[in-house]
Amino acid sequence: MSSPTRTSRTAQKGQGQWALGYREPLNPNERMKKDSDGLDVRQRILDIYRHTGFDGIDPGDLRGRMRWMGLYTQRAQGIPGGKTAVLEPEELEDSYFMLRIRIDGGQLSADQLRVVAGISTEFGRGVADVTDRQNVQLHWIRIEDVPEIWERLEAVGLSTTEACGDTPRVILGCPLAGVLDDEVLDATPAVAEVVEKYLGDREFSNLPRKFKSSISGCAHHCTNHEINDVAFVGVRNADGEAGYDLWVGGGLSTNPRFAERLGVFVRPDQVSDVWAGVCAVFRDYGYRRSRTHARIKFLMADWGPEKFRQVLQDEYLHEALPDGPAPDRPATDQRDHVGVMRQVDGTNALGFALHTGRIGGELLAQVADIAERFGQGRIRTTADQKLVVLDVPDDQVEDAVAALAEHDLLVRPSVFRRQTMACTGIEFCKLAIVETKGRAKELTAELERRLPDFDTPLTINVNGCPNSCARFQTADIGFKGMVVGGEEGFQVHLGGHLGFESSIGRKLRGHKVAATETADYVERVLRGYLEHRTEGETFAAYAGRADEEWLR
C-alpha cells in the first residue's frame, strides 16, 4: 500500500502549523482564506453576484470561497482530457456551476426530495447525481439563480453550506440508522448534534484541507470508516455499553492511507465534543505549507495514533478517554444496502441501484412519489451512489419493486449494476481526463450480456483522474483515467478491499487499457478468476496472488 511514512516532518520548521506559531499564509489558498473567511461569500452572492452574473465574480471567490457554499465552476464542454493539465482554470471552466447539496446521514423526506427534483429540472437541465458521500449534486447552475435555490432548499431544511471547501464536509451516517435490528446503536442523534453545533461554525471554517467524517452504528460498516478523516464506528465495550471506536487519518487520492484506531471508547454523549476535538487538532496542527500534504492523514502518518490520542486528550478534551474494543467483523462485505431489508418495525427497506449515481430531476420526483405511495415518504442516500425507500409493508414489497423497475431503478440488480460506481468525469469536472458515467454504464450492460450468470460480489469503480472520488484504489477492479495513445483510457488497479483485510488495489505497472477495450479486459480477467479461484476465494484475494502477466 502506498502511504505516507512516519518521519520527523513535524520537527521541521515552516509547515504552517498554527499551534507552532506559523500563522503567516504559506500558499495562495491560505492567503485567500486569511483575506476573507469562505463563509463570507454567501452574502456577496446575495448582494452582488446575483446581479453582476458570472463575469462579475471576484477570482478569489470564484475559484476558492464559492466552495464553502457548495459551488464549483464546471468544465466547459468539448475540452479533451489531454488539455486538463495544460490549460489555466479560467480556460477550462464554463460560466455554470456544480451545486452540491448536503444530506447529512443520507436522510431525506419526500418533500425534500421533490424540492431537489424541482431545482434540478428548473435550474439544472434535469441533471442530478447521487454521490458516494450521500450528497446530491446538480449541474448547469447559474449564479443568478443560486439565491432562489437556497431559499427553496432552506425552506425544507436542506443546505449547501460547507458542502465543499476546506471545511467539515457532510457527515456520513448509515442510511438505515434506527431501522435495522442488527445495528450496534442508532447514530442519528449524534450526527444531528454535530451538524447542529458545528455546521457553519467559524471555529472550523478554515481547516488546512477538506475534512471528511462518518458517524455510524451500522453492523455492515456502510460508511467506509477506513477512508474517512475521522470516523466513529459502533462498538460495545466489556460492560455491554454501546458507543464508538474512534478512527482518524484515512483518505485516498494520490497518497492512499487507511485510518487508524486511537483505541478509545467514546460514549454517545461525548461524540460531538470528541469530533470537535479531532477537528481542532487538524486545524491547529495540520500542515498548511503544501496543499498536497495538508490532509490529516499526513499528520497521523507522522504522529501515530498514540501521540494523536495524547494531544487530543491533553490539549482539547482535557480528560482521558477509556480504552475501548475494536469493531466486530462486518455482517457482510456488501455495504451498499441494496435489496429488500427487514426493518425492526416489521416493514421493509428497499435499496436500489441507479446507473452510477446518475438519476435526474424528473426521476427523483418519481422516487418521492413511490416513497409516499408504498411507504411513509422516507428516502435515504447511501455512500455507494444508491437510494433506499423505507417503510414498505410486506404486501406492498413486490408492487414497489415493480414500480421502481418501471423507471430502471433495480432492487434486485445484477452484480455489475449493483457494484459499479463512477465519478463525475470529464462531462463536468475540470480535473478529469476521461468520460466516466457513460462509459461505466456501457461497461455494465456489456458485462451483463457477456457474463449473465456471474453472481460473486465484485466492485468496479471508474475514476476520471488520480483523485479517487470514486475510490478506484479500494475496488476489486479500479480504473484510473488517463490518456492512452492519444485517446481516453485507464490505468488498472486490482484487488482493492475495505474491511478486516483492507488493501489498496494492486497497480499493474505500465498496464493501461483503452476506454474502448475495458469490457474485453474485464471479461478476460473475470473468466480467469472463475476458472482459477479456490473454494470461497474472493476476487480481491485471487487478484493478490494471480500471476501479473495473466492479469495484464
TrEMBL record:
UniProt KW keywords: 4Fe-4S, Heme, Iron, Iron-sulfur, Metal-binding, Oxidoreductase, Thioether bond
Domain Nitrite/sulphite reductase 4Fe-4S residues, every copy: 164-318, 418-546
The protein's Enzyme Commission number: 1.8.7.1
InterPro entries the record matches: NIR_SIR_4Fe-4S, NiRdtase/SiRdtase_haem-b_fer, Nit/Sulf_reduc_fer-like_dom_sf, NO2/SO3_Rdtase_4Fe4S_dom, NO2/SO3_Rdtase_4Fe4S_sf, NO2/SO3_Rdtase_FeS/sirohaem_BS
Any GO molecular function: metal ion binding
Domain Nitrite/Sulfite reductase ferredoxin-like: 94-156, 342-406
Reactions accelerated catalytically: hydrogen sulfide + 6 oxidized [2Fe-2S]-[ferredoxin] + 3 H2O = sulfite + 6 reduced [2Fe-2S]-[ferredoxin] + 7 H(+)
Region feature (Disordered): 1-36
Family to which this protein belongs: Belongs to the nitrite and sulfite reductase 4Fe-4S domain family.
Function: Catalyzes the reduction of sulfite to sulfide, a step in the biosynthesis of sulfur-containing amino acids and cofactors.
Protein name stated in the entry: assimilatory sulfite reductase (ferredoxin)
Gene source species: Klenkia brasiliensis
Lineage: Bacteria, Bacillati, Actinomycetota, Actinomycetes, Geodermatophilales
